[in-house]
Amino acid sequence: MRSVIDVPDLSLSELDALMDTAEDIIARPDDYADACRRKKLATLFFEPSTRTRLSFEAAMYELGGNVLSVTGAGTSSAAKGESVADTVKTVSCYADLIAMRHPKEGAALVAARNASVPVINAGDGGHCHPTQTLADLLTIRREKGRLGNLTVGLCGDLKFGRTVHSLIGALSRYEGLSFILISPEELKVPSYVKNDHLKKNGIPYQQTTSLEEAIGGLDILYMTRVQRERFFNEEDYLRLRDSYILTPEKLKKARPDLCVMHPLPRVNEISVAVDEDPRACYFKQVLNGKYMRMALILMLLKEAGKL
Ligand code: CP
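Above: the input record for the complex with phosphoric acid mono(formamide)ester. Below: its predicted structure, written as tokens.
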């Protein structure tokens, strides 16, 4: 049974095909309005979410399907001690597809090994978040017209930011990419991400603590929130949370065609005044995420022989 736990589960040609399907859905939404009639998506969210859960659910409704939803560990039998394996074996009896978010790294893999329907990882702890990356890739392709030959700045909590880990894994497969990794010393990209993607593929990258020094050379600036929920103590979080705040003043040093991205939710790291700047693309990312999730649902249900 084909599941999607991280972006490398999808080949480059499959990523292209998903983006092409998303473009077709944008152009011809009525053609897809009944595509998943009588099919059910279960959204199992054991961690808070606005965009990912609601966009999966909106995606399934816009495909003519239905949704079963668990929101929060306290509202399901996980609160009684049920394992992820038993939960997804049970949900496989009710749904054709599962999208799951869980605070523990590796939970999505456990789910995929035990479910009898496809599982989509909607974020597992500080590990990865592949469908956010699908949203990010479509946004970059739409805004820049390409996914290669770009200088990409990733800024903020690069240690716990799972969207960053998945995005590095995806972009490292395209030609001509280079990365500027902007973070406090304590929140640098984990070694396993650098080894598995950047070093292995010979991708040039620099690490810096200065957003101001880096911003002028970037095609993409991907801001991230400091992930309070992953810190072991509040003092460290409070010390690091405002390390980077993107303001209109800082954007004066940036290229006129910079694309400013953020997976959201935002706390302080992008001033709301930046929202008026035409280079702000983060709410476009939100919408692109729904179309890419529609494309992924269609792909997995077709492969599972359910469409
Ligand atoms: N980007 C993202 O995963 O947002 P949510 O936590 O609101 O789902």
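Notes for the reader.
Strands lie at 40-45, 66-71, 97-102, 119-124, 151-155, 178-182, 205-208, 220-223, 259-261.
The first helix runs from residue 12 to 27.
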